[in-house]
User: What shape does this take?
Amino acid sequence: MNKNFLLKMSFDIEGNNFNAAGAASSEIKRKLKQIGLNSDVVRRAAVSAYEAEMNIVIHAYKGVLTVTVSPGEINILAEDEGPGIADIELAMKEGYSTASDDVREMGFGAGMGLPNMKKCSDKFEIKTELGVGTKVSMTIYY
Amino acid sequence: MKLNEVVQRLNLEVKTCKENLDREVTGGYSSDLLSWVMAHANEGNIWVTVQSHQNIIAVAVLLNLSAIIIAEGVEVEDSVLQKAEEEGIPVLTSSAPVYQICGEMYQMGIKEGEV
Assistant: This one.
């Protein structure tokens, strides 16, 4: 990653805390808007960050969301300590979700999180280890 | 069309941000699946839903929606309204079903999507 970053921010995300959920991505959106990035780029970054944040809240014990803005690109990194993903190919399919019924009742777990993240980013990488956690890296060029 | 006009024609109850009702409405969207809304709703849209928990405010802020209509007489907790007030998101409520609200908005000329 480019060392000459313009902005870097990190947020601790707590698993299962639905009240605080969305706070980190809202703050990320505010900051990206402040530094004057265009609205389509801000929107894609905000959606990516939101879905990553929600995935940690829904599925993991805890995690960290880090956003780095460098000249020409935004990187969003979501690293969690959690159960990991058993079948990434399946998890990437729209509509597939392992979320609980309780969580689905709140309107989460539509199976659109990872597909949304991939759609909104120019580069999408996911690494996971069962019983350890998952790491998602998304890059958006501007 | 301004948000104000929608509020009056649909007889919506304004729960938060009365001062933000002169905003232009760019279209409408309805779903109760938050990721679906994140993927398909556009800036300035009115979102019609029966979800009423705190996270709907985050979705509206992130997408810069013009308002949320919580339909079917669903009650909204004070903590959610407080959050909406802080974030500047008008929360509108109605006892009418989602289908009817969407139908009426469509007839008023509020179409889906595009900014």
